[in-house]
UniProtKB/TrEMBL annotation:
<dbReference type="InterPro" id="IPR043128">
    <property type="entry name" value="Rev_trsase/Diguanyl_cyclase"/>
</dbReference>
<feature type="modified residue" description="4-aspartylphosphate">
    <location>
        <position position="55"/>
    </location>
</feature>
<dbReference type="InterPro" id="IPR011006">
    <property type="entry name" value="CheY-like_superfamily"/>
</dbReference>
<dbReference type="InterPro" id="IPR041522">
    <property type="entry name" value="CdaR_GGDEF"/>
</dbReference>
<dbReference type="InterPro" id="IPR009057">
    <property type="entry name" value="Homeodomain-like_sf"/>
</dbReference>
<keyword id="KW-0597">Phosphoprotein</keyword>
<keyword id="KW-0804">Transcription</keyword>
<dbReference type="InterPro" id="IPR018062">
    <property type="entry name" value="HTH_AraC-typ_CS"/>
</dbReference>
<dbReference type="Pfam" id="PF17853">
    <property type="entry name" value="GGDEF_2"/>
</dbReference>
<keyword id="KW-0238">DNA-binding</keyword>
<feature type="domain" description="Response regulatory">
    <location>
        <begin position="3"/>
        <end position="120"/>
    </location>
</feature>
<dbReference type="GO" id="GO:0005737">
    <property type="term" value="C:cytoplasm"/>
</dbReference>
<dbReference type="GO" id="GO:0043565">
    <property type="term" value="F:sequence-specific DNA binding"/>
</dbReference>
<dbReference type="InterPro" id="IPR001789">
    <property type="entry name" value="Sig_transdc_resp-reg_receiver"/>
</dbReference>
<dbReference type="GO" id="GO:0000160">
    <property type="term" value="P:phosphorelay signal transduction system"/>
</dbReference>
<keyword id="KW-0805">Transcription regulation</keyword>
<dbReference type="InterPro" id="IPR020449">
    <property type="entry name" value="Tscrpt_reg_AraC-type_HTH"/>
</dbReference>
């Protein structure tokens, strides 16, 4: 059942629609009917119906204004406008506001039934489309090869944590990774004679053919293969007992790929072989060294298999296995997860210890952590520049420690302090915005056009987040708070002036004195007239 409300200032229309239509029979539950747009908007905010059927001409708030509010905040709610105005301008406005239908009065009960059936069919189709998990699953399966390529590219380009690697390997049904790994990168030099203009349309086909040879050569070896966005071919070769055997094996596979592409496709490739690594998390180091060795093509020529070990030898400074814990730590600091932040610090320091990296390499890693934390402070602690500067200066103390254990303790204290400052800054900013909102209401309550959108634009907040924090800070919604302010101002005017009731209504933001009177009694338990008489009696006594 879809929830529906009716909005029309003519009681006879509302009663007619309620009594002549069997709503449940057409798949709808009628949850309310309202005489004006303001009341309807309050109901929409509270009940969030799936369908609103509204007249266009009503007091306090007309149908198009109501449609505008619904379109802005609840775009999934369908709206049907009923009107006696056969004017193109109204139809244009309705289209702009994404109104589902624009129906001219008078409309018969039979036409309403047909309209409901049609709208329900549309809503059923939308629901089916969203919930068609089988269709989504098929799309996912069709995307798996590309998703697998992007995962492997992330694995070698930026590095991933051990837990995520295990999870993704299981998801893509990849074989478990042996302990020794090496990355090979194949780059097409050019297409030889095929570079002529008449062969330009063959470029994609030739790349595909080269990848087919690449795949046929290495897949039987259980290598992990993918293509990069730069049209390079990459293989992760694993599984030999020691580094020498792995290098020899990678050279053999690479030479086969180079030879067969030149022989059968008549163009050449250069292949770079990176450093061996013992942990799969270190693949970015092997990948970067494989890319680096490709640069030597400029000196040595095309159509070669090149190894970083031959050209640059072993690195003089082994890099820590986890190269991105500084970024993860900064992310944890921003999101306020102190437990996660401390765990990342402990894991990072433990990895630095186990890597047996020289002091220079450890301080290089700590410099990245310090820079990431500095960036977090600059981004999030904006209201107190002195505090921000002090935090950054304290981060420079990292160079005064002599052991990683000292750095771990110091870093935890810094992170705790930074996170506390960021939390205070967020709270300060929110308080300032709510204070500005309250001032805006107190200043502009007499504006009968004041809306939540106007207020949010003034304080630079989204309507959904503002509604949440405003209720948390004041205990009331925007409408409740605005109404309370207006009623309080009306009480003052009733007590201290001789203004007529319609004048007071207008001064507190209500153009319709009857609606003001109803609202005043709803909030005070008495009419404006009775309230004034009571105040006069009490003053005389």
């Amino acid at each position: 059942m879809y929830k529906v409300i009716i909005v029309d200032d003519e009681a006879v229309v509302r009663i007619g629609l309620k009594n002549t239509i069997n709503w449940n029979e057409h798949g709808f539950e009628l949850i309310g009917d309202y005489a004006n747009g303001r009341e309807a908007w309050e109901a929409v905010e509270q009940h969030k119906p799936e369908l609103v059927i509204s007249d266009i001409s009503m007091p306090f708030m007309d149908g198009l204004e109501l449609a505008g509010l619904i379109s802005a905040q609840f775009p999934y709610i369908k709206m049907i406008i009923l009107t006696g105005f056969d004017e193109f301008e109204y139809a244009q406005q309705a289209i702009r506001l994404k109104v589902s239908d624009f129906i001219l009065k008078p409309i018969t009960a039979q036409e309403i039934r047909k309209l409901l059936d049609r709208v329900k069919a549309e809503m059923d189709e939308e629901t089916k489309h969203r919930e068609d998990l089988g269709r989504l699953n098929s799309q996912l399966k069709a995307s798996l090869p590309l998703l697998k390529e992007r995962f492997l590219e992330r694995l070698v380009a930026v590095g991933l944590g051990r837990a995520e690697i295990a999870e993704r390997f299981a998801y893509f049904e990849l074989p478990p990774a042996p302990p020794l790994h090496m990355v090979m990168v194949v780059d097409i030099d050019d297409f030889g004679d095929r570079e002529l203009l008449s062969y330009e349309h063959d470029a994609e086909f030739l790349r595909f053919a080269a990848y087919d040879i690449f795949k046929e050569t290495l897949e039987q070896d259980n290598a992990l293969l993918f293509r990069t966005r730069e049209e390079r071919m990459v293989a992760i070769v694993s599984g030999k007992e020691n580094e020498s055997l792995l290098v020899e094996h990678a050279f053999s596979l690479a030479e086969q790929v180079r030879y067969h592409i030149e022989k059968y496709l008549k163009f050449t490739v250069t292949i770079g072989i990176g450093r061996a690594c013992t942990h799969i998390e270190q693949l970015p180091d092997s990948y970067k060294s494989a890319l680096s060795v490709l640069d030597y093509r400029f000196l040595l020529g095309k159509n070669r298999v090149l190894s970083i070990m031959d050209l640059e030898g072993k690195p003089s400074m082994p890099l820590p296995p986890n190269l991105d814990w500084d970024r993860k730590l900064a992310s944890a600091v921003k999101t306020g997860s102190i437990r996660e932040a401390f765990q990342l610090i402990e894991n990072g320091v433990a990895e630095l210890k186990s890597s047996l990296a020289p002091i220079e390499a450890c301080f290089l890693q700590m410099q990245k952590v310090v820079l990431s934390l500095m960036n977090s402070i600059q981004e999030l602690v904006v209201h107190d520049e002195e505090v921000s500067y002090d935090r950054q200066m304290k981060l420079m103390d990292v160079y005064g420690f002599k052991t990683l254990d000292e750095i771990e303790i110091w870093l935890k204290e810094i992170v705790r302090s930074v996170m506390s400052t960021i939390a205070d800054n967020r709270s300060h900013l929110t308080n300032m915005q709510i204070h500005r909102a309250v001032e805006y209401i107190q200043t502009n309550y007499a504006n009968d056009k004041m809306s939540l959108q106007d207020l949010c634009r003034h304080v630079l907040m989204s309507t959904s987040y503002f509604s949440l924090v405003f209720k948390q800070h004041t205990g009331e919604t925007f409408i409740e708070y605005l109404t309370a302010v207006r009623v309080a101002k009306a009480k003052e005017l009733l007590h201290n002036t001789t203004l007529k009731f319609y004048e007071i209504a207008e001064q507190v933001g209500y153009k319709d004195p009857n609606y003001f009177s109803i609202l005043f009694k709803k909030h005070t338990g008495t009419t404006p007239k009775d309230y004034r008489e009571k105040q006069i009696k009490e003053s005389g006594a």
